[in-house]
Design brief:
It is a single chain. Helix 1 (52-58) crosses helix 2 (60-75). This protein is 31% helix and 21% strand. The relative contact order is 0.13. It has an 8-stranded mixed β-sheet, with helices on both faces. It has helices at residues 52-58, 60-75, 101-109, 142-153, 175-182, 185-188, 198-216, 261-275, 291-299, and strands spanning 46-50, 80-83, 96-98, 114-117, 132-134, 158-161, 165-168, 220-225, 231-239, 246-252, 282-287, 303-307, 315-320. The protein has 9 helices and 13 strands. With 321 residues, the chain is of the alpha/beta class. Strand 12 (303-307) and strand 13 (315-320) form a beta hairpin.
Length: 321
């Protein structure tokens, strides 16, 4: 059963990534380092930083130590770090890391990817709506910056890869393919169909990208075959008001069922929810007669929690964690 769209609630969130601390000297450097394969291919190759308040707050020696750490971390992602001495140097910077609210507002107005470091210059200041924020330089790595870059430029995030699948965010260009998948009556037997008007579905998709992906950082994603890029369904995790965990939803085109793809996608998504989103409680809402989806939930480790008739007739709720 594919879950319905999450409520459009505007929330602010921070993503914190744990990193090992390195001590490394130098300024504008780029090292060739071995690293594990990332979820997303890194398109970004340069980071501009302008942190006058942090430099004043820490003092030159401590600030240089933080900068050395940041440069070493970015080098593992083949990202060059360059310090800006003034706002006038911003030019066409790929991504800007700053604690200057004025620069942050300018970046947002020019659609320049930007991340704010919260310190004495920015913590209590007025900041642009929806801007990415971190508590310290240790909270940043290349993939985090890559996600900021992609979100600002309208490029979908690649969420997870499996042996056969790539799961990524939806883009408006996926909508015609979804109509092809939903045209099979077996798909809509137990779940809602797309809007009858494709323009309305396109509008909904654009709003979903902006309001759900943009604020939550997760939602319903697209499932593609990794070797061909063909869209075969969608699955993901959504916030539901009144439930502390996340709701799993999934849909797989009829011709791609019974190949193990649904389990492969959903089990990986649940792991992503635990490791990346910090969630350990999940649920799925399934029509009581949709036996394949119920069997999938049970195989994933979900347990039947009782009737869900108080919300939707003929649906049952499965819970995990």
């Amino acid at each position: 059963m594919e879950s319905a769209a999450a409520n459009h609630i505007v929330v602010e969130f921070l993503i914190f990534i744990k990193l090992k601390l390195y001590n490394f000297g130098g300024n504008d450097i780029l090292l060739e380092c071995e690293r594990e394969r990332l979820i997303m291919d890194i398109m970004l190759n340069r980071l501009f930083i302008y942190l006058p308040y942090l430099q004043q707050e820490l003092g030159q020696d401590d600030y240089q130590g933080k900068l050395d750490y940041l440069q070493h971390t970015m080098a593992q992602f083949h990202i060059l770090v360059s310090q800006m001495l003034s706002i006038s140097e911003i030019g066409g910077a790929p991504v800007v890391l700053t604690d200057d609210p004025q620069l942050a507002f300018y970046c947002v107005s020019q659609q320049i990817p930007c991340c704010i470091v919260l310190d004495s210059g920015s913590r209590d200041a007025s900041l642009p709506s929806g801007v990415y924020c971190v508590e310290s330089l240790e909270d940043i790595d290349g993939e985090y910056l890559e996600r900021i870059y992609r979100r600002t430029k309208g490029i979908p995030w690649n969420i997870v890869e499996t042996e056969h699948l790539l799961i990524r965010e939806i883009i408006p260009e996926d909508v015609p393919r979804l109509y092809e998948l939903y045209s099979d009556d077996s798909i809509t037997k137990y779940m809602d169909n797309l809007y009858s008007d494709p323009e309305q579905e396109l509008s909904y998709t654009r709003d979903y990208i902006q309001n759900i992906y943009g604020f939550y950082g997760y939602g319903m994603w697209i499932i593609t075959l990794k070797d061909t890029g063909v869209v075969i369904g969608r699955a993901g995790l959504e916030y539901k008001e009144g439930y502390d965990g996340l709701e799993l939803g999934f849909m797989l085109g009829a011709e791609y069922q019974h190949h193990g793809y649904a389990y492969e996608a959903c089990s990986t998504i649940l792991e992503y929810g635990r490791e990346w989103l910090g969630q350990d409680a999940f649920r799925a809402i399934v029509h009581k007669e949709n036996l394949p989806s119920r069997h999938l939930c049970e195989r994933l480790g979900f347990q039947l929690s009782g009737s869900f008739a108080e919300v939707e007739k003929d649906f049952v709720e499965y819970r995990l964690g």
